[in-house]
């Protein structure tokens, strides 16, 4: 890592499974940050000023002062998590040294969530709660796929000596999953069917930084 720089982070977010990933990571790393609450119901994320930060009009996003002294604007939760550990996790609290086996394994599970668990469970939520008509095929398809992915997580965690996804401590791979697994009930998925995943969830929720981070942004 390069010489330490002072963080100047503003988090643009809402209290969703994707949004809380970043606030949890920031709390775990003990970094100072400002919060700009994005009111999704009012479509603030589609306003021109926000689309300048994230052209896709989605949360979360951050701005920070980069090593060249200029502002950097980042979006996509996986990218932001990777940026935070690359720039600020000098003691490897949430990561592992680059180039190590553990670092690559961490990325595998991070991408697994970004490309699998989040999108599939998100589709369950949509067809259960937002679709204009109930389509059983879609509900069943995405529910079964989410459960299949949960079973992979459960099997992996059954062999974990630490109870976390990679090696001996929490990492951004764990943080990426916790908001979604904790919201499984909204998708009408019973985590009790996946005992090792349930134990992991309970372990994660006992962490003070996780509890604090998942309350960001604050109400009001």
UniProtKB/TrEMBL annotation:
SUPFAM superfamilies: GST C-terminal domain-like, Thioredoxin-like
Domain (GST C-terminal): residue spans on this chain: 99-220
InterPro entries assigned: Glutathione-S-Trfase_C-like, Glutathione-S-Trfase_C_sf, Glutathione_S-Trfase, Glutathione_S-Trfase_N, GST_C, Thioredoxin-like_sf
Short name of any one Pfam family annotated for the protein: GST_N
Domain GST N-terminal residues, every copy: 6-92
PROSITE patterns noted in UniProt: GST_CTER, GST_NTER
Protein family membership: Belongs to the GST superfamily.
Protein name: Glutathione S-transferase
Organism expressing this protein natively: Elaphomyces granulatus
């Amino acid at each position: 890592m390069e010489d330490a720089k002072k963080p100047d982070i503003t988090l643009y977010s809402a209290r969703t499974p994707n949004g809380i990933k970043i606030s949890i990571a920031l709390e775990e790393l003990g970094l100072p940050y400002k919060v700009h609450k994005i009111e999704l119901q009012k479509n603030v994320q589609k306003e021109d000023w926000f689309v300048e930060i994230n052209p896709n009009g989605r949360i979360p996003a951050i701005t920070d002062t980069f090593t060249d002294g200029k502002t950097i604007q980042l979006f996509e939760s996986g990218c932001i998590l990777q940026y935070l550990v690359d720039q600020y996790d000098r003691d490897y609290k949430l990561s592992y040294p680059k180039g190590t086996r553990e670092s690559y394994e961490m990325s595998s599970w991070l991408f697994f969530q970004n490309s699998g668990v989040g999108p599939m469970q998100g589709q369950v939520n949509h067809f259960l709660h937002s679709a204009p008509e109930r389509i059983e095929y879609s509900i069943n398809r995405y529910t079964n796929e989410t459960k299949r992915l949960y079973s992979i997580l459960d099997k992996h965690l059954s062999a974990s000596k630490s109870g976390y996804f990679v090696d001996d401590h929490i990492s951004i791979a764990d943080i990426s999953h916790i908001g979604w697994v904790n919201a499984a009930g909204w998708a009408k998925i019973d985590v009790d069917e996946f005992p090792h995943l349930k134990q992991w969830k309970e372990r994660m929720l006992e962490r003070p930084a996780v509890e604090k981070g998942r309350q960001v942004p604050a109400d009001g």
